[in-house]
Amino acid sequence: MSDSRFYLDDLHSGQRFISETHAVDAAQIIDFAQQFDPQPFHLDDAAARRTLFGGLAASGWHTAALTMKLLVAGTPIAGGIIGTGGEIAWPRPTRPGDLLRVETEVIEVTRSKSKPDRGIATLRSETKNQRHEVLQTITVRIVVPARSLGQQAAA
């Protein structure tokens, strides 16, 4: 495949992608929280120790944003990662010092009957830390363009 991006025709169930890593530190957690999720357990370690988190924890939305960054870099979908819906869970918090990696599996690929130039791929991603603990799971349906007839012949 000369084009390094993946089109609908290149994807299949069971296909896996593994991202690079991203190191999370307290400053990133606090900065994100100050802007987007200003709760004590995301802003101050001492305050966070008195909560069910027992210490500073990243916002789930921060973990989701970092997951997106890693997905975009590690899952080169033609046309970008354009979601149509999904489901997200945070089984454990992201902490300062965590080294995040996203492991993604293609669950299903379906060509649109009404718009054959595209389809829907269902992806399931797990965001893990350096101890292989799952911090976030997300299952999303994304729109993926199909290769044009000319591109299919060249591939």
Write up this protein:
The chain is of the alpha+beta class and 155 residues long. 26% of the residues lie in helices and 34% in strands. It is built from five helices and five strands; from the N terminus they run βααααββββα. It has a five-stranded antiparallel sheet with strand order 1-3-4-5-2, covered by helices on one side. It is elongated and about 55 Å long. The model has no long low-confidence stretch (mean pLDDT 94).
Mean pLDDT: 94
CATH class: Alpha Beta
> Can you give the helix content as a percent range?
25-40%
CATH-defined architecture: Roll
Q: What is the distance, rounded to the nearest whole angstrom, between the alpha carbons of the first and last residues? A: 6 Å
User: Do you know the CATH topology?
Assistant: Thiol Ester Dehydrase, Chain A
What structural class do the secondary elements suggest? Answer: alpha+beta
Percent range for β-strand residues: 25-35%
Corresponding CATH superfamily: Hotdog Thioesterase
Rounded radius of gyration (Å): 18 Å
What low-confidence regions span 5 or more consecutive residues with pLDDT below 50?
A: none
N-to-C SSE series? EHHHHEEEEH
Largest beta-sheet details: 5 strands, antiparallel
Question: Judging from the principal axes of the Cα atoms, what is the shape?
Answer: elongated
Overall number of domains: 1
Helix count from the secondary structure assignment: 5
Strands, count: 5
Q: Strands of the largest sheet, in order across it? A: 1-3-4-5-2
